[in-house]
Inverse folding.
DNA sequence: GTCTATAGCATGATAGAC
DNA sequence: GTCTATCATGCTATAGAC
């Protein structure tokens, strides 16, 4: 064959990465296969050597995105004790708000995930539960608090992106940071 | 003319209402003009008697949706003192999570609004500020807390819609309700 | 104001050459 | 594995009849 043994896998990985970034910026449905392939210097016809359909790509893409985010947010057993607050600071940053292409897939593609297949949503749910489980230990054992912190982060970023003025965007992010800080300090189960 | 004097306005209103519901369910970009008009028993050609382009409809639709939500959430000066908590209960309901067509436009179309024109986003921002302003007075004067509550609501609904199992969805909504309750009770400015 | 017809283009997906 | 060519369909938007 004219291509190296690992070429297909490499191309598939690049395609997932690149398509993820593009979809998070312009929407998945709204972006054509030709555009996704052109970003890799390829043509549309080559797409079907890697995925059987556009929906197939969406499933793989969402799984990859949510997996990576979940691993990053969950951290490891030897992560520092301020791991969660570090995640919060970086999640609620102006950079994140202004760069959907490298940001959280739930903020950029949440609605499209919501109307996707049960399989895709089940995978997303599993990853979210990993974060919830990891954070619960760091939030005083309150399982609900982890969900609430996640909701706070996601909602703040949605708000930050829909408003027009950078000033309001900054106020939203700052307010959300304060709210999370209060949530994580006043842990009733811990007293 | 063969049509009543108010016919155009009525059709335009129905079109905004119906298109809003459809777009919130299936996405705006993903839905064709023919489908939007068919929902009113009309054909695609008639669309351009009401809007000059699909983007024009989007702008009008988002403004209508966010205006209605903002008025509802902001309430009036003579709204009961538990107005905010009533809003929270209804926003964080299973019904809302399972019925995007009648729900908050920010949850369903947030990403599409984020990449729309500055004009659209400025209108959204203005409506959000009305809610923020109205809620600030009911939340101990803390301007940031209103943003945080809004973020909590929106994020929880995004999460509730992306997960697969009704059980997890319920846990998310319940956790968010508790979090908002804590936020609104422990108001440092109030003590 | 709504219809049909259509232009002009983009799309998802397939077939066959290399 | 990628290319070009193509099919069938969908789309936004326009033109002209009623």
């Amino acid at each position: 064959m004219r291509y190296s043994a690992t070429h297909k896998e490499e191309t598939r990985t690049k395609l997932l990465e690149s398509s993820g970034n593009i979809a998070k910026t312009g929407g998945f449905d709204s972006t054509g296969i030709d555009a996704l392939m052109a970003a890799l210097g390829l043509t549309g016809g080559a797409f079907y050597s890697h995925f059987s359909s556009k929906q197939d790509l969406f499933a793989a893409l969402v799984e990859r995105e949510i997996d990576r985010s979940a691993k990053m947010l969950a951290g490891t057993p030897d992560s520092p004790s301020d791991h969660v607050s570090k995640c919060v600071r970086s999640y609620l940053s102006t950079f994140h708000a202004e760069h959907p292409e490298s940001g959280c897939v739930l903020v950029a593609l949440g609605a499209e995930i919501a109307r996707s297949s049960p399989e895709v949503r089940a995978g997303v749910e599993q990853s979210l539960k990993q974060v919830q489980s990891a954070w619960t230990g760091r939030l005083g054992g309150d399982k609900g608090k982890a969900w609430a912190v996640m909701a706070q982060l996601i909602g703040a970023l949605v708000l930050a992106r829909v408003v027009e003025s950078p000033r309001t965007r900054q106020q939203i992010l700052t307010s959300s940071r304060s709210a999370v800080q209060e949530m994580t300090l006043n842990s009733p189960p811990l007293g």
User: Anything to note?
Assistant: Residues 2, 32-34, 44-45, 47-48, 53-54 of chain A lie near DNA strand C (CB under 10 Å from a C1'). The mean pLDDT of chain A is 95. Chain A touches chain B through 55 residues (CB under 8 Å).
